Amino acid sequence: MKVLREKINKWINGILLDAHNYFICYLPENLSFFSSHFLKIFFSGIKIDSDQLNIIKQLPENAIVVYTSKFKSNFEFLFAYIRYKEMGLPFPVIGFDYNAFIWQPLTRRLRTVVSYIDYYFKNKSFPDPYKSGYIEEELLKGKSAFLSLVKEESFYKKFVKSETDPIAYLIEIQRTTDRPIYIIPQIISFGKNPIRANNSLADIFFGTAYKAGRLRKIATLFKYPGKIIVELSEPINLKQFIESKDIQEYGIQYVSMLLRRDLLLQLNRHRQTIIGPALKSTVELKESILANPRFQVFLETYSKSRKTTVQEVSKEVNNYLDEIAAKYNNTVIRIVAAFIGWIVNTMFDGYTVNTDGLNKVKNQSLKGPLILIPCHKSHIDYLILSYLLYNNNMPCPHIAAGKNLSFWPMGSLFRAGGAFFIRRTLGGAALYLRVFSEYIYKLLEEGFNIEFFIEGGRSRTGKLILPKLGFLSILLEAFKKGACKDLIFVPIFIGYDRVIEESSYLDELEGGQKEPENFFQLLKAGKLLKKKYGKVYIQFNESISLNEFLADRDIQLKSMTSKEQNAFCRNLGYRMINAINDASVVTPFSLVASAILNCTKKRFTYENILSDVETYIQYLSYQGTKLSDTLISDYKRAVEQVFETYIQRKFIEPVYRGKISDPKSSEYFVNVNRRPAIEYYKNNSISHFIPVAITAIEILKIESFQFQASDLHPGYAFLQNFFKYEFAYDVDKTQEYFIRKSIKVFIDNAVLVPHEKLPDTYNITSAGLKILKLYTNFLKPYFESYLVVISFIETTSLKGLDAKERIKKIQILGNRMYKRNEIERIEALSRVNYTNALDFFGNKGIKDSGNTEKIKYYKDIINKYLSFLQYTG
């Protein structure tokens, strides 16, 4: 028997090649021909974004890579093995608690069987890859692994049979090696449908996008492989994790529990960034709001103050929620997304987006709900932003929309796309405001992303409107009450070469009434599809975590008084506006419009405009401003195309009629009636030029070819305050900062020359005067608008006039002053400018003709500034 056993052992060792490290959890680097080719074809339709793969590529060379999924899934394990191997990346060959026996080559399967039988007869148990040290040995050799956090049998194995916990096992390995173990969460979603509180029959039988069954996986893979989303989450450095001060004192079991919890939270949050939170029905939403103890207390108090019953007030609440609430429907979103894609390709020449910024936003969404804050120039804004997010595997946000957009049939579509509706004015509607606030609280509590326009409405002038703070205040109050752990504010710029609402905006600026949105407007919109509107530009600025923002400044929001919170809200609102301006893209349409309207001559050539555009580009490049791709690649060609477009649209016209032999050498003038349209596009980039424009006009105001930088400070501070209702200023930067930057630009452009002996003293060059006026003329329409308003106040009593009557009378006076040549720019006859001027003078206590001293003071100052802004030829 001894001889027989020796022969059998020799025979077994021969089959096993004198090794016993054959385990069913191992996928060898070389599969069988059939397995390898079958799996490659099987997974070939699934796409992985290159940005996702960069997460793996950026790991240290000596890293031990372990991929992890939430649920145990052979599909995900095999996918990671095949696809990462194809791309030359670390691919998992070890599956913790996986059975890969069927995919092993035939010879290895035979050896695995023999090894298991031999081990069993010798030890009365099957081999354990953990206790044998096999997995540790392979990982330290540089092999990668795959780990699942939730397995049906995990509780029984871990707590009943006391089998090895893979997480604890990895922690043990990390404690014995200097090489870092990186755990990379991998998410595979079989579609973008959000989870529903009550699953449909199909979800019960086939699983959800979140946790798909085998039939759903196979059906999706073969029929709609493009719907399968693969994303990698931020890797966890296990070495750093176990060495952190908060964890060092605990035992391995507790640390492994913490790590598993953190990984599960990260996977759940990341998956939520793809499909969104679980959706509840409208009835469930209403019930959860009404049943809230905090809201119940309010209802009791409110009903008593109104001498009515809680039931009657609850009926009103129900009606308000019907008026407000979105009815998110992923099927409708999918259909509308395809339609928006068609519109974008039909009406526009595509769109450009900073994908790095978008990826950062997605990563930030792991911390808390995103508060998306785009500028508002067009109705296309919210459509294209939702379309962009949907196409980049992010859920469409819930969008705060004006109640005017709830008209039939678009209101229902907007609700299905995530829009919830808000009244324009909330004054006196205490119950409505509280219901709306509770609705916002609920959205944040559930984890939904929210989009709102901080300007309140679409800009009719082309520049950003100063922030409206009501909705932002509601968000801060919800956060203060504990609706969510953090708020991530995302400033977004959305700009256009041309806006589709151009004609209606100009009509409103000139005194026309805004048409309410209705179905017939929708029918007329079909004409817009026959035109091209250039490109759309989307830029994401750095997100602001409210928690980090508060911590950096040592601000305690919860202990703030109402007055302090209002000031904080105002500060945050201005930061958002500035952040949007900083992210804005300057287009050739805007620069050519600026050069045309700011030209110091009434007649100009193409070469004059090109030269002025080059001056602006030099300034913007120095400031680090984002330029459109057409300006970066070939600005001369871009300027030429826009110049030709402006000729075709009769924005500018040749001085001499007839056939133009050479458009570049011909002289042109601005079509007076088209100046307001050009002004709109000039204003698209005006925020970048305001600091340099104010600096330039203060230099001209000195009326000397030599000055000191300190001479500019009082005037700069005055104008910054004078135009505070027109432009948002960066609250973190001083006027000295802006003056210094502007002077640096002027020196680089040979506008100024530093004095040889006197410090902080500069001389203006002879060529510099023209360039200074190229900047100062950005301000001319605003000075003229304010002159019209102060002239109106000087001769008219405002008492007894409502806002509409005041504006109407100011428009009449403005038209009269324009005809008398008391003002030069027809674009100065703007209702928006007039309103802002009234707000400014009212803030200064100038409300009627009785304030003669103040009126004379401001009128003289305006006329003085305008004296430096005359045409030179």
What does this 3D model show about the protein?
- By secondary structure, this protein is α/β, with parallel strands linked by helices.
- The chain has five domains: 21-275, Glycerol-3-phosphate (1)-acyltransferase, CATH 3.40.1130; 350-583, Glycerol-3-phosphate (1)-acyltransferase; 597-687, no CATH class; 689-776, Orthogonal Bundle (Arc Repressor Mutant, subunit A), CATH 1.10.10; 780-867.
- It contains 38 helices and 22 strands.
The mean pLDDT is 89
Q: How much helix is in the residues?
A: 40-55%
Number of strand segments: 22
CATH class category label of the largest domain: Alpha Beta
Q: How many structurally independent domains?
A: 5
Question: What keywords describe this structure?
Answer:
alpha/beta; 5 domains; Glycerol-3-phosphate (1)-acyltransferase; 873 residues; 11% strand; 53% helix; 22 strands
Task: Summarize, please.
The chain is built from 38 helices and 22 strands.
Detail the topology: elements first, then pairings.
Layout (H helix, E strand, L loop, with lengths): L1 H14 L17 H11 L6 H8 L6 E8 L2 H13 L5 E4 L10 H18 L10 H7 L3 E7 L3 H7 L5 H11 L4 E10 L10 H6 L7 H10 L4 E5 L3 E2 H6 L1 H4 L3 H24 L6 H9 L2 H13 L4 H15 L5 H18 L3 E3 L1 H10 L5 E5 L5 H12 L6 E5 L7 H7 L2 E4 L7 H17 L3 E2 L18 H11 L7 E9 L5 H8 L9 H6 L11 E5 L3 E2 H7 L9 H22 L1 E2 L1 H11 L5 E2 H18 L2 E2 L1 H20 L3 E3 L12 E4 L4 H9 L6 H12 L4 E3 L4 H10 L12 H14 L3 E3 L6 E4 L3 H9 L3 H16 L7 H17 L11 H13 L8 H16 L6
Parallel strand pairs: 1-3, 1-4, 2-3, 7-13, 8-11, 8-12, 9-10, 9-11, 15-17
Antiparallel strand pairs: 4-5, 4-6, 12-13, 12-14, 16-19, 18-19, 20-22, 21-22
Helix pairs in contact: 2-4, 8-13, 15-16, 16-21, 17-19, 21-22, 27-28, 27-29, 27-30, 31-33, 31-34, 35-36, 35-37, 35-38
